[in-house]
Amino acid sequence: MTKNSYDILKERGFINQATDETGTKQLLSKQKVNFYIGFDPTASSLHIGNLIALMAAKHLQSQGHKPIILVGGGTGLVGDPSGKDKARPIMTRQKIRENVLAIKKQISRIIDFKNNRAILVDNAAWLAKLNYIEFLRDFGTHFSVNRLLNSEAVKIRLEKGLSFLEFNYQLLQAYDFWHLFKIKNCILQLGGSDQWGNIVAGVELIRRIEEKEAYGITIPLITTSDGKKMGKTEKGAVWLDAKLTSPYEYYQFWINTDDADTIRFLLLFTFLPIEEIEKLKRLKDAEIKKAKEILAFEATKILHGEKEAQKAAETSITLFGNENKKASSIPTSMMNKKEVTKGITVFKLFTLAGLTKSSGEAQRLIKQGGGYLNEKRLDNPNLLITEKDFNNGELMLRAGKKKYQKITLR
Questions:
Q1: CATH assignment of 5-219?
Q2: Residues 297, 248: contact at Cβ < 8 Å?
Q3: Burial of 84: CB neighbours in 10 Å, binned 0-12, 13-18, 19+
Q4: Where are the domains of the chain?
Q5: What is the domain class of 246-320 according to CATH?
Q6: Which of 142, 150, 173, 355 is most exposed, with minimal Cβ within 10 Å?
Q7: What is the percentage of the chain residues whose pLDDT exceeds 90?
Q8: What is the DSSP secondary structure assignment for residue 127, as one 8-state letter?
Q9: CATH number for the segment(s) 332-409
Q10: Which is more confidently placed, 253 or 326?
Q11: pLDDT band, residue 40 (cuts 50/70/90)
């Protein structure tokens, strides 16, 4: 029996809430649906926290539904207060335009835009043209201030201060949904769990103005088995841009997944069939490493392509199989020769390389025996490193068992 699109999302773990579960399920089984998901361009790259929504959208696209990917060049000027304990910095229009272009390229690696199978829109195209008085008159009457104040995102921020600018965000996102409903026949919105209030506002706006039904699905906020937010590492966010997080680092992020999270992440972050994942679920103890290798390879292949995934896998085997440490995918930092002419303390080198967050952390790491220089364990954090420590202009640092960084002189 062919599975319903909604059932596919649910069994893989993508469903958190639905504005009308029965109606959404019927909708996705009866017709091919235009649906949208939005990303505000607050940075030049999306991160793993955004990836789950793109994966859900790709599953729906594979079932014949049409994604409308909205990049918020307009709402990005306001800033979404959802899930934030303080206001976002106000961004310039130029910076937002640059971010929009960069994000479009990343999304195209996952969502297929060929032959009009998906479309990409920027809400600045319609929000920037809004007449404020007309907007208040035509749409403001459909929003209850009491309802907005009871929104979870607003209530959290009211305690620390919420600007009127941010207070308007929900109205603008609801307007986006209505606008796409009118011009693109978009009747479903996907979003993270922190977008529930915004999505419900859009569904209600369409119902009040058009007297028609629209639907919304939220995707759960992904946390690891120990309760930490998914996608955070010692070096910060795991980015989808290869310049910010290399394919090797991306591969390593996935291969270091906790045993308890491996199967769940295979369901969410790969396109492997359920049946194949069920087989991997039977692996125990040391065998789980095989499932992690599959997760890392498949996840890296989706974003960076099979060639980069293969290269990252080979580098990982090279490094952690105690073979030659000259694999091309090892993260590399460049350093000017002048910086080592008089010498630089090794703890400072660890910090500059991004292997530790601070000098204090680097010193503790080395004192505790977790720092390595060219595969030799360090015991003195104040060891002076000079050009003679470099072999053909290269030097290898390691923090713990698996974090490598190559330093190259220029």
A1: 3.40.50.620
A2: no
A3: middle
A4: 5-219, 246-320, 332-409
A5: mainly alpha
A6: 150
A7: 42
A8: H
A9: 3.10.290.10
A10: 253
A11: confident
